[in-house]
Amino acid sequence: MKKIFTYLTMAALAVTMLSGCDRDASEANTLSGRWTGYISTYYYDRWGLTGEDYRTTIEFVQRDNYGGTGYEVDYDINDPWGSYYYSPLEWEVRNGVIHIFYTYDRYSVEIYRYTLNSSHFSGLMDDGTRRDIEFSLDYIGSVDWARYRYGGSWRTRSVEESDSTDIVVNGESVATGAFARAIKAQQE
Predict the structure, then answer these.
(1) Burial bucket for residue 97 (CB in 10 Å: 0-12, 13-18, 19+)
(2) CA 143: distance to chain centroid?
């Protein structure tokens, strides 16, 4: 009887562990794609701006069963081309938690309380501070990343010659406007 109980326990554990991996792979597959919507923060957000809502667009590019790379741009609702922050990212779904690492500024967040389906993604991000970062995103078809990455044709000067508040990394326009000023203030 003891052997049967041991075998049943081992089988139950194996099923539980394998189904967790399958769920992570399923979540990663659903997450893969382009999403846009709003992010709201209470207290201070990562840019030092208080209680602001801003728009965000994220693309998750799946490279394996559980994660991949991508891009994110956060921008002022009233000035999307003049005040934004753009960053490549790496992401992974592990044990039901979505981990996002922003490569330019080495910033990371965890998303562990969320709802996700093929058309909507919402929940709370945790960046290790005591503030709540709520987001609500909808799945979209395409994104013109060139406008953010390289300054786009809407600028009259090259990225390197642009406004002195702009931040450029590896030839990519990373931040402009209020986002760039907030980053520079944090660096001083």
Answers:
(1) middle
(2) 15
pTM over 0.85, yes/no: no
Q: How far apart are CA 43 and CA 38, in angstroms?
A: 17
Structure tokens at 48: 């030092």
DSSP label at 109?
E
Cβ-in-10-Å burial (0-12, 13-18, 19+) of 178 comes to buried
Three-state DSSP at 182 gives: helix
* Sequential DSSP letters for 32-100: -EEEEEEEEESSB-TTS-BS-EEEEEEEEEE-SSSEEEEEEEEE-TT-TTTSEEEEEEEEEEETTEEEE
Q: Which two tokens stand for residue 150?
A: 């390289």
User: pLDDT tens-digit profile of 92-131?
Assistant: 999 999 999 998 878 899 998 899 999 999 999 988 877 7
Confirm if 41 and 54 have CB atoms less than 8 A apart.
no
